[in-house]
Design goal:
Blueprint (H helix, E strand, L loop, with lengths): L1 H5 L2 H21 L12 E7 L5 H16 L5 E8 L3 E8 L5 H15 L11 E4 L8 E7 L5 H17 L4 E7 L4 E7 L1 H6 L4 H11 L7 E4 L2 E4 L9 H5 L2 E3 L5 E3 L4 E7 L4 E5 L2 E10 L5 H18 L3 E6 L3 H30 L3 H23 L6 H30 L4 H27 L7 H36 L13 H19 L1 H17 L16 E7 L6 H14 L6 E7 L14 E7 L3 H18 L4 E6 L3 H6 L7 E5 L9 H9 L6 E3 L5 E9 L1 H6 L4 H12 L3 E7 L2 E7 L6 H7 L1 E3 L5 E3 L4 E9 L2 E4 L2 E8 L8 H10 L3 E5 L1 H31 L4 H22 L6 H29 L7 H38 L4 H36 L12
Parallel strand pairs: 7-24
Antiparallel strand pairs: 1-3, 1-4, 2-3, 2-28, 5-14, 5-15, 6-14, 7-12, 8-9, 10-11, 13-14, 13-17, 16-18, 16-19, 17-18, 20-29, 20-30, 21-29, 22-27, 23-24, 25-26, 28-29
Helix pairs in contact: 2-11, 3-4, 10-11, 10-12, 10-28, 10-29, 11-12, 11-14, 12-13, 12-14, 12-27, 12-28, 13-14, 13-25, 13-27, 15-28, 16-26, 25-26, 26-27, 26-29, 27-28, 27-29, 28-29
Length: about 1000
Amino acid sequence: MVRFLLARPIAVGMTFLALMVFSVIVFRTLPISLLPPIDVPQIVVKVNYPNASPQAIEQNILSNIREGLMTLNGLEHMESKSGSEVGNIRLTFDYKTKMELAYIDVNEKIDRLISGLPEDLPRPQVIRINTNDIPVVRVQVLPKEGIDYAAVSLLVENVLKKRLEQLDGIALVDINGKQERVITVEPNRAALASLGMTEQHVIDAIKAGNSELPGISVEDGQFRYYLRLATRIDTPEDIMRLPVRNDGRSSVTLGKVASVRYEIAKPLGFHVYNGREGLVITVHKQAVAKMNELMPLVRDAVDQFRLDYPQVEFELTQDQSMLLNAGIDNLQTSLLFGGIFAFAVLFFFMGNYRMPIIIGVSLPSSLIISFLVFYFFDISINVISLSGLALGLGMLIDNSIIVLDNISRKRQDGLPLFEACVVGVNEVMSALVSSVLTTLAVFVPLVFLSGISGALFYDQAVSVAAILSVSLLVAFVLLPLMYKLLFSKQQGKMVLEDSRLFTGILRGYKRLYRVIFAHRAVSLVILLALIPALLFLGRLLPVQGLPPIEKYDALLEVDWNEPINASQNRDRIAQVVEALEGAYIHAESEVGLRQFLLFEGESSIQQASLYLMFPDQNQKERQEVFLSRYFKQHYPLATVAIQDAPNAFDQLFNSDLAYYEVRWKDLASKRPVEERQMDQWLEELPLQAWELGPGLQKESAVIFRVNQERLALYGIGVDQLLQQIQKLFGNYLITDIKRFGEVTPIRLKENPVDFQQVLRTQYIRGQDDTPYLLDNFIKADYDSHYKFVTADRNGIYQSVLLTGEDPSQQEATIRQWGIERDLSVDFVGQYFQDRETLTQLIGILLISVLLLYFILAAQFESFLQPLIVILTLPLGVGGAFFVLWITGTSLNVMSAIGLVVMLGIMVNDAILKIDTINRLRAPFVGLPESSTKEGLEKALYQAGEIRLKPILMTSITTILALVPVVFSSGLGADLQRPLVFSVIGGLTIGTFTALYFVPLMYWFLMANKRPVPVESLQ
């Protein structure tokens, strides 16, 4: 095939040129995003029910929804949590579930259940979780002093949101911090009493004034007109002109017995930026959009907003495109330094300027053609797929060096240029194909990992497979063609003059080779003993999901654990920010309930999150210590979590599961165990290190106890009492003014005084219209109750979270504790998922090793020689562990990827070394045993000398191309540094392994075996 293609250089050249042109066209159509559009198999159902307790939400709402959703296809787990005024159900599906259909199915079931839920309950929200839900940027909208906040809220909702959603590539715009304008009615109770009226007369007058005549029409000759009452109200002035009538007696205008005005509705949450209340717009991109093209559009739109609306200030924060830019910069850096160092290494080793030119052309051409594979496999350009390309670039350089070196050697042996190109490629073709297949055999099975890890590995596996496959095409066709063109003027035998550097290295290699082979058994034992010693270092490495990235931002999550309102919550956060004044660049906080449509986490009025951007790492660490002390001193009841601000990777990998949770259910009562009983049982809990789960946390509450007998005595109905309590303490809605989609509520103004004073001063009328003080019928007590009610698909549970080492050892003791109290005990958490993932990973790696063995056995026509390659892998892994250990780096996702890449390069070197030894042994077929052993010795020696240069060049170019990342700073470098340490450590040991361990093992396993016939090596 190579001979046929090289004989047609113009056709081959045009074909490659056409492929590159098509690839450039395709590249312009590929979506560019931060992460692959992964379908996270989770759906969250959120419930918002004002003025409802956790028990009421669980009993009246969530339990009914859980029962209705039990039969969903593919449902694996169901968790619900109800708090004050809010509740949510998190549904987790099998990864094979079509989430589009599951989302439709959940909505249909919710619609069917609506009739069985409370009438005044807003429809539960159904939120589907997707990686595209992570906002690419946040737009801060800050009204200037004196500007109506409600008007700015309408501006954001009706104008800015729609203008942003019109931009190409934007899927959704979400808003938090909106505040609505309401009309409040504050009755003058003294004036009403003097006229013999009550609040109900005012309410009835407003409702009558806002009535409509729907669907009524009259005829006037041949025309038909629809009637509209002229008494409709629009403004507070209209309401104050309404007549209030007292049971048929004289009437007065409403303005004389009540004050009516526009006000901002009592907020349940705030958004604050740098100490100023405002709104925040989160921008979410479409799956097919290019982030690098989307962000300039957003910036231009915000610049236009500044010109159009000078009464409002705008800022852009938390731009997630920085991560993508870091990935692109890393790829560019790898290409640049890979080319530079490949040129330098080839020059120092060979002193020939034409070789680097050939490699310089092959690198970008392979990369560009790889994007064709992206297009056909529907892969976007993201940080994951880009990292796969960066990984494949190292092996691409290796293949180029090996092919060029072998062609040069054939010319040195006296073959003509054309024959040298053909024979040089054919001789290493099978070995290079095997090396690529073995790399894919190690890497591709990781796609079958369950969960998000497997989904992410899909993009990376396709990108690695793409560039490695293209690299073979380039190495077997384009490289020999370019070699033939560039060296066509050189006739006859080519003289390879090794540089002084390589000559010195060669002498050192031969000297050490003689020493090692003079003591073969001892040397082999020492090398084999290194395997367990180096692998043991892996147990000393800390394990993390992602490498620690130097971040200058932090996220403070606070739960005050006190019954405060949203305004008090905001004021406390403002005090915290004020205490940090001058230490941060900007501060952004979400206080109380959040209005984001896509927010699937928990929020309550007593919770807040504070995002802080600091100028440097030292300042951040100092302020984190300060904040811990501040909360312990000023708010000891608060639960505070200070952590790195999550980026898109963290939001994707972080789990909502506790690490190890012990759950129990009272199957008899099917309700939470009473507080006093539970407190006693927890004192007897046979555990040392634990903390309360959500279902055991408590909060203070006020309980109204109604005297039913006294109500009946004075002829007062319970409904009448409840309505009066709602008017005095609740957010009582009289009616709504609706105008073209804009709704303005009319509400009774809340009483700001203490509730006990209200009970002592306010009245309710009995059957004979006699007023009675409310405290005659209501007794108020302070009490504590469970803050949350937690449940799964089997019912309500309570739990504790274990924090000690190896909590699984205490399972039997805990089960016995539960049996003694008639409790059903279960154990759940991330601990069990990690064990399952680890079991899967071990199984997949065993399959990978088997695939590796089968491929090599077919390549070498031997069952023993593949063992030599497989035995080199533990040495490479141990070398990577050693470098990770001495640099203080953890074992994480990036360092694991580095291990895979390093093993691919190591396997490549070992395969080529064994392939060369086999070829040099082939002529000794059929000779006496003494000659066979002598031939083996010569083959081992000559193969080491022949393959020394390509092995060293591939290792050195890969290592030197990665070294700049070690000394770089920034987000991209922090992500890639563990990968670099793994590759450098593995290749350092791996190079030594390929040079000395492979021939030693070959001699040990094959000394008494017949050489492989030359025909099987073709």
